[in-house]
Amino acid sequence: MVSALLGCAASREAGPGIAEPVEQEPAPAASVPEAYRPALEALEEAIREGSNDRARALFRRLELRLEADPAAEQALAAVLAGYDLVLGGRERTAALDLSLQLERISGDREAQVEVWLVARSRWSQELLLLPGALVLSVLRTEMDPRGRSGDRAVLLERDPKTELRVPAGGSARWSLGRLPSGVAGGSLASRLRVDLRARAARIKEAGREYPAEALAARPSRHVELAGYLPSSATPLEELRRAALAPEVGIDSWAERIVRLAPQDYEEASIGLRRLVAERATDLEILDRLAPALRWLLEGEAPGASPSEWRAWARASARTAQEAPRTLDLPGA
Question: Is 85:9 a contact under the CB 8 Å cutoff?
Fold first, then answer.
């Protein structure tokens, strides 16, 4: 049966240049001409599957058919309006690249970061983002000198209370407030990972509002180091040399891990997983590699025993066979 895709939102004019969303009731099945049912069902299936390009092509083909059939065009107007809004919202959402930035606030007595939402637009017209409620998922991880780490997670809501204006083909950013980022006593480092989801988000263009489904931003991380640690990032090559080096103690190994730049986490974890799968002893896994991987993988832990870590590493390595081998030890 043809529906209006879960009660798609239409819009009505609520004043000059302002569109107010209203719920659009699905058109009664009896009002859909039989000749158009297959086309509408194909369109609905494409939208449901997220095949937006195919859905837009089917929509335009249906519009052309209806131009020669005014009675059917009138009967299907409400259904097509709902589909058009859904597709329009998806197209505009896809043209927005949203990310988070965490910037260290210098000069404060207490270490803090400011959270910024950054939007870059590839759309040809100015867009207004109405994010509704923004939900920040904050994961804080601490590591001590023995490589032991612990996580704390919290959800925070932010309400910008304003439309976020993104210029055509340009970018803009908005502050979502500050978070404490200091290192707890006895820890080597504290890391924040912040994710964002928007609830009931909408996008407005030229006074018309569109639903913004699954609006989210790429996460961001900030690592705060204990004051006595070097501030320079650990090079991947140095991490490679230290991974199983007996002269590098646990505390020195943990320091190298926390100083690794977040953009190097994935490559480093691939090399360490390969060592777990192929070369490391049980003790090396438990004392060195498992704690390092917990930090790099942000809490993921396949188990407690070396055998569980090996099985997990071998399974995950199969999906990374084409990845760079920067962290392979010589002869691996």
Answer: yes
